[in-house]
C-alpha cells in the first residue's frame, strides 16, 4: 500500500508537462509506437524536402527571369546609346553631308 500512496503523491506533485513527457517516453519504448512515429517523421521530412525543392525551383525561375530582364535592358541601352552616337555623328557641322549639298533649302 505504501507504494500506491507514494505513486499518488508523486503524480499529484508533478507538473502536467512532466507527466506528458513521461507518458511519451513510456510510449516510445513500445515498438509499434516507435514505428508509427518513425513513419510520421519520414512523411513530414518528405513533405519538407518537397516544399524546399519547390521553393528552390521558384527561386531559380525568378532569378532567371530577372537576369533576362537585365540583359534585355542592357541591350536596349546599348542600342539607344549607339543610335544616339551615330545620329550625332551624322548631323555634325563640317561632316560630309554639308560638302555634298551646301544649300539644301534652295
Automatic annotation (TrEMBL):
Region (Disordered): 74-106
Top-level taxonomic group: Bacteria
Bias (Acidic residues) ranges: 86-100
Record protein name field: DUF5132 domain-containing protein
Protein source organism: Methylomusa anaerophila
Amino acid at each position: 500500500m505504501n507504494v500506491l500512496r507514494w505513486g499518488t503523491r508523486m503524480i499529484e506533485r508533478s507538473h502536467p508537462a512532466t507527466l506528458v513527457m513521461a507518458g511519451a517516453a513510456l510510449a516510445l519504448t513500445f515498438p509499434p509506437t516507435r514505428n508509427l512515429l518513425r513513419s510520421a517523421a519520414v512523411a513530414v521530412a518528405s513533405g519538407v524536402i518537397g516544399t524546399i525543392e519547390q521553393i528552390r525551383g521558384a527561386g531559380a525561375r525568378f532569378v532567371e527571369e530577372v537576369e533576362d530582364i537585365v540583359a534585355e535592358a542592357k541591350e536596349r541601352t546599348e542600342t539607344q546609346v549607339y543610335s544616339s552616337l551615330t545620329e550625332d555623328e551624322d548631323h555634325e557641322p563640317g561632316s560630309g553631308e554639308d560638302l555634298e549639298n551646301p544649300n539644301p533649302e534652295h
